[in-house]
Here is the input.
Amino acid sequence: MAYYELDKARLVNLEYSLYREILRTNRAGSYCSTTIIGCNTRKYHGLLVCPLEQFGGEHHVLLSALDISIVQHDQVFNLGIHKYRGSHYEPKGHKYLTGLEVDDIPKRYYRVGGVVLSTEMLLAEQEEQLLYKVTLEEAHSETMIRFKPFLAFRNVHELTYRNMTANTRYREVERGIALQLYEGFPALYLQSSKDIEFIPVPDWYLGIEYLKEQNRGFPYQEDLFVPGYFETGIKSGESIVMAAGTSEAKTGGLKAKFTREKKKRIPRDSMINNLLNSGQQFLMKKGSVTRLIAGYHWYGERHRDTLLALPGLAAYQEDRSTYRSILNHISGEIEKKYLSSNKSLLNRDIDVPLWFFWTLKECASTCNDLDVWGKYSQVMKEVIDHYRSLNEPNMRMDDSGLLYAKKEGVPLTWMEAMAEGKPVTWRPGYTVELNALWYNALMYFATLAVDSGQEKIAEPYFRLAQNVREAFVNVFWNSKDGCLYDYVDGEERDASIRPNQIFAAAFPFSPLSQEERKAVVDVVKKELLTPRGLRTLSPQDPKYKGVFEGDQTQRDIALHQGTVFPWLAAFFADAYLDIHKQGGLSFVKRMLDGFEEEMGNHCIGTISECFNGNPPHIGKGAVSMAWNVAGVLHIIKLIEKYSNV
Here is the structure.
């Protein structure tokens, strides 16, 4: 039995099925995504969505949908589903759905009279190609099958409409056709694993609607071009593979290729395997460089996300060469983009290079042969010395050793939401996590130096770290509430209960005493912890926004004012178990239950970007985020660690 399996009763309930999505990706950066019943509800949905270098590497929807129809006794049963104006769905193919399994890849089952048909789809690992397999499981009379492609040829952030510019002509290729709707786009090859007839019936399907875009306050209607349909006979027990790709396929090998590609997938037969399967979907290789995509559907590579996600995603991998490649890549990015004097990204993301130290230590703890000092000591030293040299009035290391950063109208930390041109959570001055990261980096570098026999190199960094530790407590400790201020700027001491203070309690090198760490953990547990992670603001705060909804501005205002982020829970678990040891295991294990439940909700088998602060903590934002998947894997790793003490 598959780990996730849904029956007809749930699948035909549109309120249930339209809010649950599936996502598949490949190493080429392409993805395939739709709802569990195949009705696209986002402009970002599509069966073949590819990054196109000729358009700046941004993702473009080539094949939006592929309707399957069964033909028996001259009757046509269309298994597709699209939404039109007035909540009108046509065709209503979901009524034929009898089951959905999500094991290694999604598999739908349809029944029409005496016909049982299954569909499976995946992406070829290294190329821009969708493989869509249909199998006639049962049939008692002659059966034909049709494939009707819906084409978009547009950027994922835009919509397309009927126009006279589109080149609707096609050319025949082996067992299929090729089309190129617009100049500059690659041709799309639609081909079958068996001989098949293409019947040209070119038409625009007008006014297809995307429910999620409508709810988000964005344009939500578009027109899709259908060039015609493919038709062939199919026998009971027979499978046909349709390929959609940007290069011509050898059709005789499509079935075997589908089987090979399917065997590469990690089976989704447990919680951890679902996370590992989802974790691999963030990998993207361009040439010799492997990167991490921050999340789907609209995020690209983000340095902070990569640093936070990398240890968790790599922890259970036997072959860590890919993740070493990512580590090397991000090391080079830090040197090139953050330490340079011209247009340094420190002016936008001041904390990012300091996360590199946490990432290195976490990776070293699960990869014994990682030579951190030998390979990365030079860039580590350059990072620290760069921060030490900061001496601008609004970006500096002060005499106490603490880091101060303030830029009018620019959010400098991970809480970077902007609304109407202004930062929602502007945190100027001394921010708590930046200085916790700073202390952790100094101590880790100095400790590595001593372990490598470089005591003279270590000594000044140890001295600086001691100064930072003393100043940290003096500046940030909020004795009234028994926790840490979120930021301090002059006389302003922000006492908002936010999750940023948990880092100071969770880092391997903490500037806090054991008693102070426990006090911080207790406050965070009481005010911020939910079954989906940590809130970004206490519900007791008048600025608290418990629901992440509305138009773009409304959502941005709510994003860090109470919205829940799962990746933060990993740091809470780290601090909690370090304090309570095995006595805290049962509590942390219960934290996993909320995440396992969620993996069957928003996007099957993965973790959404964020959640409402108010119960029932509905998933919001991007459907799958790398640092969230990595965070839950980290919690599992922590449970194993403390269970084996």
Notes: The first strand starts at residue 4 and ends at 7. The mean pLDDT is 94.
